[in-house]
Amino acid sequence: MSSFQRARDSLGRRLRELREQTGLNGKQFAERLGWQATKVSRFENGQRTPSRTDIVEWAEAAGVPELTDELLTLTAALDEMYATWKRQLKAGFGPRQRKSLEVEGQTRMLRGFQCSVVPGLVQTPDYARRIFEHNAALHGYAQDIDDAVEVRMRRQQVLYESRQRLHLVVTEGALRHTTVTPSVMRAQLDRLISVSTLANVVLGVIPLDRQLDILPLHGFMIYDDATVRVETVTAELSVADPSEVQLYLKLFKILADAALYGSSLRTHLIGLQTSLPE
Question: Which of 74, 187, 223, 235 has the highest CB neighbour number within 10 Å of its CB?
Answer without folding.
Answer: 223
